[in-house]
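Why do we care about 3D structure at all? Because function follows from shape, and shape follows, mostly, from sequence. That is the central idea of this module. The next example makes it concrete: a single protein chain, its amino acid sequence, and then its structure expressed as tokens.
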Amino acid sequence: MPPRSRRPRGRKTPLNEAARLADRLQAAGYTKRDIARILERDPSLVSQFYTKNKGAAFVPALSEVLTAIEMGGITDLPALTAIAARHITRRTTASGARARVRSKAVLITPTGSGTGRVGAQAIASGSARLRPLIAEAARQGLHLAFTVRLARTAYVHPSGSRTDSPGIRRGVVQRADHTEERAYGSAQTGGHDAADFARRVDAAGGDVTAAVHQWLVETGRIHPDASILHLEVRTWRPRNTA
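And the structure:
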């Protein structure tokens, strides 16, 4: 019996332009996760450049980012994100209106109130959806607070400890799956300066998850190897400002 012919390994169809540009970025030392942060999208979208022929809308942005890296020597992720943002055009409907996106919009009201939440998938990719909320809160001089959920054993102090910011059971939610939510900051306690937190996010390369994790570790609230499972950010305008 003659041996079966095997299909040649490799791709059946050539890469689209977005995938080719993503390949060049990876050759320059950037990961798919980095590319997703630059585009302020989920890493799964970058994978779909290869598997589902997506990414045409991001070709101008990717081209400009490559030019900035290769010709301008720019390597900082926040700077590349800013460059990409100027060249990303939202899709339009048949009538010419801007298409709605499926992700929840982040909005800060005129009073300074804003909320953004992310779950496990977004947290793993740096909680990029929260970055615009924090940046806008910093621009407006707002304060912010955040709520995190981790395994109960991930916290250094027991719930209700006054060494931790929630105090006696305030801002603590214990769940049946052995995880616990704790809130850090509020309008009553003053919360955190959004501008300071935005600088932390920038220093972490735009990774909101890493910035929050670093603050929790630095202030002795969680163990260094702990993993954040849920993250929520809330903003408000301090009472002593107009």
